[in-house]
Amino acid sequence: MKRILVAVDFSDATPAVIEVARQLAKALDAEIHLAHVRELTAATAPGALSYGLAGMPELAPVSGVPVPGFNSMPQTIPESENQKSQLAQWEKEIAQAGTKVTLHQPTGSVAEEILNQADAINADLIVMGTHGHGAMYHLLVGSATKGVLKHATRPVLLVPSPKS
């Protein structure tokens, strides 16, 4: 095991995900590839199948997700300066611990891009967090973790978010 892809999403689970990946990388002399997907807004056209509203614009008022007109293009959700500096900090801390680290910031559907990055770097393992959202959340919003688990062709290690 030489390449570990670590999905970073700034949730409560992220620090634990990074720590588990750091320990694994150190024990296995592996490199870490941090992947933060720059997500697109949920501009899903009616009839389109994807994560998000799954082509059901009538659910938009319930989910709080705006549904643009048919000709609207999805926009990238902007990153805050805090998120940019946190990514740089994690990258620096991992490197200072003696582990080779690379940051990837693809844009698109989270699950799809995590799997694309895993394929691109030929990852031996994907490490990502779980959020513990309920069934209604998954129905309305979908789950990147669920999408990765369903379509992954390599091992996936899930790290739970801390209990409140």
Topology:
Elements: E1 3-7, H1 14-28, E2 31-35, E3 38-39, H2 60-63, H3 81-96, E4 101-104, E5 107-108, H4 110-121, E6 125-130, H5 135-141, H6 144-151, E7 156-160
Helix pairs in contact: 4-6
Q: Tally the helices.
A: 6
Q: Write the H/E string, N to C.
A: EHEEHHEEHEHHE
For the largest beta-sheet, the strand count, sense and barrel status come to: 5 strands, parallel
Which consecutive residue ranges, at least 5 long each, have pLDDT under 50?
44-65
User: Residue-averaged pLDDT, rounded?
Assistant: 80
Structural class given helices, strands, pairing?
Answer: alpha/beta
Q: What radius of gyration results from the CA coordinates?
A: 17 Å
Could you name the CATH homologous superfamily? HUPs
Using the alpha-carbon principal axes, give the shape.
globular
What is the fold named in CATH at topology level? Rossmann fold
| CATH architecture name | 3-Layer(aba) Sandwich
Strand order of the largest sheet: 4-2-1-6-7
